[in-house]
UniProtKB/TrEMBL annotation:
InterPro entries: NAD(P)-bd_dom_sf, Sc_DH/Rdtase_CS, SDR_fam
Keywords in alphabetical order: Oxidoreductase
Keyword Oxidoreductase on entry: yes
Keyword Oxidoreductase: yes
Protein name: Short-chain dehydrogenase
A Gene Ontology term for the protein's cellular component: membrane
GO MF terms held by the record: oxidoreductase activity
The family this protein is said to belong to: Belongs to the short-chain dehydrogenases/reductases (SDR) family.
Length: 241
């Protein structure tokens, strides 16, 4: 039986991923902080094993998974989003929280679990379509996800000799508890189930760039082709409006 480890599995995209992978016959190691939700998830699917711990705790990460377990897929999905509402009064503590959760903890996870990823396996890193173009208030979130995208690119080169593939996941807006907090329009928003299906297919096909919904991400990719000074003018104009 194929195995997958998924972080951030107690809600949102991670929860839908855990369910969908289990439905496809995978043995799923579902990681998250909420023991109650993870236990409920495992009761719904016998192939799901709950692993409750805090991803900001390096020791907890290293103690979470039995070292004898071999993995076919790893999806480092867990993350957070906080916005810098006043750039002039920059919140360094907020910036550190987001960077630690979205980027530094990924490094801990890679150190702990990459040795357990089988040859021919696939590593998925959760970035964001926000990395395509700079977005207002997203200094912390965008910087953390840009770091993830760069990390994915370098790993895709360095892990090739180990016969391990890397997928960088760039979602648009997805219906999750995280995006429910947003106070702005979210065009082309899709469900977490749709997101999970797109990620599973991309991982199965060993695609590097998994982005969705394409009608939204392709628009951002097009904007990214513009010289920055043009995008900057457009973004400033949108803020004023």
């Amino acid at each position: 039986m194929n195995t997958v480890l998924i972080t951030g599995a107690s809600s949102g995209i991670g929860e839908s991923l855990a369910k969908y992978y289990a439905e496809q016959g995978f043995c799923v190691y579902a990681c998250g902080r909420n023991q109650e939700k993870l236990t409920a998830l495992s009761q719904q699917h016998s192939q799901i094993t709950p692993l409750a711990f805090d991803l900001n705790d390096k020791a907890a990460i290293f103690g979470a998974l039995d070292k004898n377990v071999k993995l076919d897929h790893i999806i480092l999905n867990a993350g957070t989003c906080e916005y810098i509402d006043n750039a002039k009064q920059f919140d360094g503590d907020l910036f550190a929280r987001v960077i630690n959760t979205n980027l530094i903890s990924v490094g801990y996870c890679l150190e702990a679990w990459l040795p357990q990823l089988n040859s021919g396996g696939q590593l998925g890193l959760m970035s964001s379509s926000a990395v395509y173009v700079p977005l207002t208030r997203a200094e912390a979130y965008g910087a953390s996800k840009a770091g993830v995208s760069y990390l994915a690119k370098t790993l895709s080169i360095d892990l090739a000799s180990n016969n391990i593939g890397v997928s960088c996941i760039h979602p648009g807006f997805v219906e999750t508890p995280l995006t429910d907090k947003n106070d702005f329009p979210m065009p082309s928003r899709i469900t977490s189930v749709q997101a999970a299906q797109a990620i599973y297919l991309g991982m199965k096909q060993k695609r590097y760039d998994i982005h969705f919904p394409r009608r939204f991400t392709l628009v951002l990719k097009t904007f990214a082709l513009l010289p920055f000074f043009i995008w900057r003018k457009l973004a400033i104009r949108m803020i004023k409006e």
